[in-house]
Specification:
With 408 residues, the protein is mainly β. 9% of the residues lie in helices and 51% in strands. The protein has a single domain, classed as Porin. It has 4 helices and 20 strands. The chain is globular and about 65 Å long.
């Protein structure tokens, strides 16, 4: 792996020379490779091919390697003006030795309707880093990556948007369930295959954005049940009523998000969490030139909270669901600073739960060596009192890392 990583750095440097072959093949407008054979009769490309190659290494607190990999992404977009578009993002990862589809879908445009079918990621919510209404895609919380969006897992979905300015009505159908991943290995338990459905009405205006949403189906999160003496993942169904907004007042930006999550049979099934209310209020502004701060308050209220556990698995599920207390309060901030004509970006994201004393903080620096070659270094820190979730996963997830990434 070390040899591959060093070879990649060497090749990247040579290919980015002043008169290198790679530079001559880059489109000045898009930065994507466009061969003459890809262009139509009018000189416009029939499709766009882009992507990246990157090498990453993550070290644990004791200096041991937590993860290392070399990954290639090939992103192909085939647009058809006023008709639709096909898109696929193929990932090739050294440690898996196979090709996987990050996303792959087909868009169709019909008057005021936009349709999308395939493996896709749909993000709901206007909170930063935490979104109570974001219920459509599972997440891989065990993944090592400097990029937050990499933790979102695509799922097969059918999405329809009906546009009637300033409103958009979106409907989503999810025919199959896909488990989220956590840094604790557990086998998948059996469950009844059912569709999940979601509906969202969005209002967009230069002065105010907002939406209301409803979700009915399987939660992307899961509980843990004991089957034949073995702990297994068990999905549960719920109904989620949500809303969010974003607006500005002078130099300040304001955002908020709310969700009521209603579960059934939570008293009879240990793996089903209690109903709960989650809410976020945030403010952001540029506090100095190119220095931006987002500050958020997040609260969780657990309905019908008892605080007593009849079994160890019930206690474990309360930790997993973040329901160890009736009311929890957290502070979240993101501080980012662009330097040297935006070639260097420094960022710190911190989430502190005041009630459980759990802390997550990420420090990251991204340096653009060239427009397409980016070096990223940083560290993630998870801290929690005994018996908390961050205590369970902290040793596994606390790490420092480095990444070299070449976009094309």
């Amino acid at each position: 792996m070390k040899n591959i990583f060093l070879l990649f750095i060497t090749l990247s440097t040579s290919l980015l020379g002043e008169n290198g072959l790679f530079e001559s093949a880059i489109s000045e407008e898009t930065g994507n490779f466009e061969s003459s054979i890809l262009k139509g009769d009018e000189g416009r490309p029939k499709y766009d091919l882009g992507g990246y190659v990157r090498g990453d290494i993550f070290l644990e607190k004791d200096g041991e390697v937590a993860d290392q990999y070399f990954e290639t992404s090939l992103q192909l977009k085939i647009p058809r003006e006023q008709i639709g578009m096909a898109y696929v993002d193929l990932r090739i990862k050294s440690e898996e030795d196979m090709v996987s589809i990050r996303e792959g879908y087909l868009d169709i445009y019909l008057d005021k309707f936009d349709f999308r079918v395939g493996e896709q990621v749909i993000v709901w919510g206007r909170g930063d880093g935490v979104n109570p209404t974001d219920n459509l895609n599972p997440k891989d919380l065990g993944l090592f990556s400097p990029q937050e969006d990499d933790r979102r897992l695509a799922n097969f979905m059918a999405k329809t948007d009906y546009n009637f300015y300033p409103f958009t009505l979106q409907g989503v159908l999810i025919p199959r369930y896909k488990f989220s991943e956590i840094p604790i290995e557990l086998p998948e338990g059996e469950y009844e295959e059912k569709f999940s459905e979601a509906l969202k009405l969005t209002f967009e205006d230069p002065a105010f954005d907002g939406s209301i949403s409803y979700f009915h189906g399987y939660s992307p999160e899961f509980g843990v049940a004991v089957i034949d003496g073995e702990r297994v993942k068990k999905p549960y169904r719920y109904d989620v009523l949500g809303a969010d907004f974003a607006t500005t007042l002078g130099d300040y930006g304001f955002r908020g998000e709310f969700a009521y999550k209603h579960t059934k049979n939570y008293r009879k099934k240990d793996y089903v969490p209690n109903p709960e209310i989650e809410y976020i209020m945030g403010i952001d502004r540029e506090i100095a030139k190119d220095l931006n701060l987002i500050l958020q308050y997040m609260g969780t209220y657990v309905v019908d909270f008892r605080g007593e556990y009849s079994s160890e698995i019930e206690r474990f599920n309360s930790v997993l669901a973040g329901q160890t207390q009736k009311l929890q309060n957290s502070l979240v901030y993101r501080l980012s600073w662009d330097l040297f004509y935006e070639t260097l970006k420094l960022e710190n994201l911190t989430n502190y739960n005041i009630d459980t004393k759990e802390l997550f903080t990420r420090i990251k620096a991204e340096y653009n060596i060239t427009d397409d070659l980016v070096l990223t270094v940083g560290a993630d820190l998870f801290l929690g009192d005994s018996g908390t979730l961050f205590d369970l996963i902290g040793d596994r997830k606390t790490s420092c890392y480095a990444e070299i990434k070449l976009n094309f």
